[in-house]
Design goal:
Elements lengths: L1 H19 L1 H9 L4 H38 L13 H27 L3 H4 L2 H45 L10 E7 L8 H16 L4 E7 L10 E6 L11 E7 L3 H5 L3 E4 L13 E5 H7 L5 H4 L3 E4 L7 E7 L14 E5 L7 E8 L6 H12 L4 E7 H31 L1
Parallel strand pairs: 4-9, 6-8
Antiparallel strand pairs: 1-10, 1-11, 2-10, 3-4, 3-7, 5-8, 6-9, 7-8
Helix pairs in contact: 1-4, 1-6, 1-12, 3-4, 6-12
Length: about 425
């Protein structure tokens, strides 16, 4: 819309410029220039002016890209591949040239309909040309105001959506939580017992840090682009072949819900007794109950047996119902989820989650140093505060809102010029 407003401004300026020179154009015809040649000259002149504007716009866009990209590199990981889209450039250049062509054709058609010899006289020029200019100017102003209003409304709606997104309840806590990617290579931890031992050692070392309150593990975390899913079968009402329902699948350790403060609505959480030697168990969320147990309360779901397509060969019993979590992003609708304890299905690629005392900024470096010293066989990847993951999901909506607002203000400015 901003491009259309700019094109309307350009068309108005160029048309007014041509109409203001009607006497000069009349003199050219008097001295023998044909009207086709005059129209061609106007067209070339307007096209050159528009082309110069397009080139200047491309240079400014490239300059802004060079200046802004490094400033946002830390917030947007995919900004390294940011470049000028030639389809957008082609559209902008074409729109500018079309505006220039129309700016030449419209006054040329008007000049072709009047007696240019009479237009050479000042009185005729002022009465005829000014009438057309006023009519054209009013039309372009109306178009610009209408487009500016639409753009301003869109910007206000974008800001309103951003405000709601910032205040949305994700279903978990991110404040003062340290998150680290952990890899347990099979060469160093060949057996499941070795994996369990590594988890216990990681937990003990993390809890020994000053200010550390609770530690857990998860194979996938909200807002981290890690996600799993599988089909399943409710043993109380088996589905037909090819029609089995699906849900998201999470492998978590003890204290996962308490670390992220995911509420427990019914039943119990996982305990250290839920291991490879005990009966297989699982948790589900409220969205799972609402979709697959519509006729039952969360309390009535407890004890139901579920056979997973992946995540264990033996049917698992539902022992608890937890709150919904916006896993993919803050704007996503909570999906049905199933939680399986890591002690019954070990994984080697996971996240460590440590709840710390607020304001413990030095804990991140202290944790990395301790892991490198005490557990050198554990591969530690990216370490960050969980709140940074939430901020990263908000960065693109914030950037869109800022750009939309800037475009709306620019449109109002162009309309007022």
């Amino acid at each position: 819309m901003l491009l259309l407003i700019a094109c309307a401004n350009l068309a108005g300026l160029l048309s007014a410029r041509v109409l203001a020179r009607s006497a000069s154009i009349a003199h050219r015809e008097i001295f023998g220039a044909s009207r086709k040649l005059i129209a061609l000259g106007l067209l070339i002149e307007c096209a050159l002016l528009a082309g110069a504007g397009v080139l200047l716009g491309l240079l400014l866009s490239k300059l802004l890209l060079i200046v802004i990209a490094p400033m946002l590199q830390s917030q947007l990981s995919n900004l390294a591949s940011l470049n000028m889209d030639w389809r957008v450039i082609g559209f902008a250049a074409s729109s500018g040239l079309v505006a220039a062509i129309l700016s030449a054709i419209i006054p040329a058609r008007f000049l072709a309909s009047i007696n240019l010899a009479q237009a050479a006289h000042a009185q005729s020029r002022s009465s005829t040309s000014s009438t057309v200019q006023n009519r054209q100017r009013k039309f372009l102003v109306i178009v610009q105001i209408a487009l500016s209003t639409c753009l301003l409304i869109g910007a206000l709606l974008t800001l309103q959506s951003l405000r709601r997104l910032v205040n949305v309840e994700p279903g978990f806590e991110t404040r003062a939580i340290l998150v680290a990617q952990i890899s347990l290579p099979s060469s160093a931890f060949p057996e499941n017992a070795n994996v369990y031992g590594a988890l216990d050692a990681l937990r003990a070392e993390s809890l020994s840090l000053p200010g550390s309150k609770v530690v857990s593990f998860a194979q996938s975390l909200p807002l981290t682009d890690q996600d799993n899913g599988t089909e399943f079968d409710l043993l109380s009402r088996p589905a037909a072949r090819g029609e089995k329902p699906e849900a998201r699948l999470r492998f978590v350790d003890v204290d996962y819900s308490s670390t992220l403060k995911i509420p427990m609505h019914s039943g119990r959480d996982f305990s250290r007794g839920d291991n490879a030697q005990s009966a297989p168990v699982m948790l589900v969320n409220q969205a799972f109950v609402a979709r697959y147990f519509k006729d039952r309360t969360p309390e009535q779901v407890l004890g139901q047996s579920v056979q997973l397509g992946w995540g264990g060969d033996v049917a698992k019993s539902i022992v608890g119902v937890v709150g919904n979590v916006r896993h993919r992003n803050l704007a996503a609708t909570p999906e049905p989820e199933m939680y399986v304890p890591m002690r019954q299905f070990p994984v080697r690629q996971l996240f460590l989650i440590a709840k710390l005392e607020p304001g413990n900024a030095a804990a991140k470096r202290a944790w990395v140093n301790r892991m490198q010293l005490r557990l050198p066989r554990v591969n530690v990847g990216a370490v960050q505060w969980f709140a940074q993951a939430r901020d990263a999901t908000l960065m693109q909506p914030k950037l869109a809102a800022v750009l939309f607002s800037a475009l709306a203000l620019s449109a109002l400015f162009l309309s007022a010029v």
